[in-house]
Amino acid sequence: MIFYTLFLLSRSGTSHNFVSANRGAVLNVIITGPSEVTVGVAADFRCSAQCSIPCSYRWLVQGKTVDGPSLAVTPTSGGDSIEIQCTATDPQTSKSSARMKQVKVKNPYEVIPMADEPKENEAFNLTCSGPSELLQVFWYRNNKPVTLDRWMSLSRKNATLSFSKLLESHSGYYLCQASIGTVTIQSTEYLLTFDSIILMIIGPDTVEVGEPAVFKCLVNCSFGCSIFWTYKNGFPSGTYLQRGTTINWTPSIPNITQNFTCVAEKPESRQSASAHKSVRITDRKPTNLPKSGADELISKMPKGVAIAVWLSFILSF
Question: How far apart are CA 292 and CA 314, in angstroms?
């Protein structure tokens, strides 16, 4: 697991937003700045508010505090987003008010495998890649520095970690750490695993209109897997309910073919697999067949008379 880290810097500056008639209340706390930041790139944020005299400001980002109306944030490692909080305080009354801003984090630095699926006892490479030149690259496995064995080697500047022969002991989460100017960044993690994704769809091949059917996607991975359904020729007609890997479906249009595709992905290991199933929807079978004229006539007779007529008909042959 990667822990999110930041490089924070307070920008000097004074906020002059104040009013004299608010009796010490802090009003209109606003954070201005980008909604997305990039690992290794500084981003500026500014906090403003209305106080009876110039406000004082304190930022809170990932448990760290910085004073001042402006803040420079440089993300150094991964994470989907960060939460930035600014608290404005009126020095005269000590009253305060806070505002939070959720900011997405983009990490362009990653570990790239030489193939989608590593194979045991075969050669394999991992490359530390990013938009900037990487200096002093270090490799980590399961959050600990990589110790090279006889099957492992590093390229010039350590940008590529090579395996002449992959072993089960090489499995784990890999990331690279590198310097960019004065900032040290971390890449996203890559999971090196030999477990291939295997999946299949179980369910009927033919379904009648109006009849409920159940389809399940069976996958050999649960932890770290993203599983979803796709539909090549359009969304299924009728009543449809999906819960996880199970679909409950009652079709409403006959004489068509519905295609189901279940996809499983392991983002950390860059693995994916899919299974397909085609289902034919038929019209509902008739349940009450029309009676012949003789059958309908006999059905309207009293029970005793009907039996006698039926027997005489049989004995006449």
Answer: 17
- Kindly give the pairing relationship between strand 213-219 and strand 199-202: antiparallel
**Which tokens go with 296?**
């309908």
CA distance 22 to 44: 29
Closest CA to 138 of 149, 147, 150: 147
Q: What is the DSSP letter of 169?
A: G
How do residues 275-315 score in pLDDT, each as one tens digit? 999 999 999 877 655 554 445 544 555 555 444 544 454 44
Write out the residue limits of the CATH 2.60.40.10 domain(s) in the chain. 6-106, 110-192, 199-282
Q: Which two tokens stand for residue 50?
A: 């209305």
The 3-state DSSP class for residue 21 equals coil
- Average pLDDT, rounded, for the chain: 83
User: Residue 200 corresponds to which amino acid?
Assistant: M
Q: How confident is the model at residue 180 (pLDDT cuts 50, 70, 90)?
A: confident
Give the global pTM: 0.62
Domain 110-192 has CATH 2.60.40.10: yes
- Phi–psi pair at 164, nearest 5 degrees: -75, -20
Cα–Cα distance for residue pair 230/274, rounded to 1 Å: 10
Torsion of CA 259, 262, 267, 273, to 10 degrees: -90
Q: How many helices and strands, by DSSP H and E, does the chain display? A: 2, 26
Q: 6-106, which class in CATH? A: mainly beta
In 3D space, the residue among 64, 110, 108, 109 whose CA is nearest the CA of residue 83 turns out to be 64
Q: Are 279 and 203 in contact (CB under 8 A)?
A: yes
Rounded to whole angstroms, how far apart are CA atoms 84 and 82? 6
- 37-94, pLDDT tens digit by residue? 999 999 999 999 999 899 999 999 988 999 999 999 999 887 778 999 999 999 999 9
